[in-house]
Amino acid sequence: MRIGVIGAGVVGLTTALELQNQFRNAEIEIVADKFGEDTTSYVAAGVFRPGTSFSGPNIDVTRKWINDAYNHWDEIANSSEGGEAGVCSLSCYMFSSTDKSIVRNHYIEKLVPIYRQASEEELKICPGDWKYGSYFQTLLTEFSIYQIWAMEKYLKNGGKIKIQTIQTLISLQNQYDVIVNCCGLGAKTLCSDIKIVPIRGQVIKVYAPWIKTAFYGEFDTYIVPGYQTVTLGGCRNFDSYNLNISKYDSASIRERCEALLPSLKTAKVVKELVGLRPHRDPVRVELELLHSANGMLKVVHNYGHGGYGVTTAPGTAKYAVNLVKDVLKGHSRL
């Protein structure tokens, strides 16, 4: 049994590990042209905080993806491998001066250990006319660390890697029994999927070890401490393919984040990064059978997570692998 996984971002890696867990005797191969620092996942801050507009085919499936994902990351964080995997707990504040709904999140209010209204004293932690706020405890997955841990685990389990640019899915027809397509933004051309849209993001990584708590303000402003640096963000440029650092976005991010936490004015910039979030509504996790003159190719799609790939990858991975199980039922070698 041969199963190919297209894509080596957080969705592809997590799906490959789940496939290894469920198909112990199968040969799993990740096929991608971008790994590690070249993936969109590398830019992500990695906080478990799905957007309230994040959606799968229906609300029940969406909640299952999110709940399964949280439980997966939480299990790693509380294991002996948590530090090595780059997964840990994180405290966060969200503030708004305009709308109470901005600081609410119906997906995680009853999922994370603590999610409560910020007190009057807590609303004064950061400068600004904050009228509404929430405090919650969640999880952080730093992809730069997780990628190394996950890849080592994948290879140790017998996983294979192929560096290749895929032109068409059907070209893989004779190479694998089933394909799991985690190609992210690449699905726009590979699958001719007009629903997938890039949402450009830019962040600044700074050295500020004194910051231990994450803060979210309005206008897509966020400050997220990681293992080695603090991520300052951000922006959401819809349908933008620009991968260049914008000095205007840099200036805006610094101004907004320093207004939220003035101590950041002394923080040294380590690097700036840009990524194109693969947004699709709904996220596509479904089976497709592709036919050609040479037969049929079984494809399970798992892409379109937007800015919530790190957050939801384990949940959609489990769902996708169950679809693989369904399509392979009755296979003579299972």
TrEMBL record:
One Gene Ontology term, aspect cellular component: cytoplasm
Keywords: FAD, Flavoprotein, Oxidoreductase
The protein's required cofactors: FAD
GO molecular function: D-amino-acid oxidase activity; FAD binding
PROSITE patterns, sorted: DAO
Binding site for D-dopa: 222, 277, 307
Domain FAD dependent oxidoreductase: 3-322
Domain of life: Eukaryota
Transmembrane domains' residue ranges: none
Pfam families: DAO (PF01266)
Residues annotated to bind FAD: 40-41, 306-311
InterPro entries: D-amino_acid_oxidase_CS, DAO, FAD-dep_OxRdtase
GO biological process: D-amino acid catabolic process
Family: Belongs to the DAMOX/DASOX family.
Designated name of the protein: Putative d-aspartate oxidase
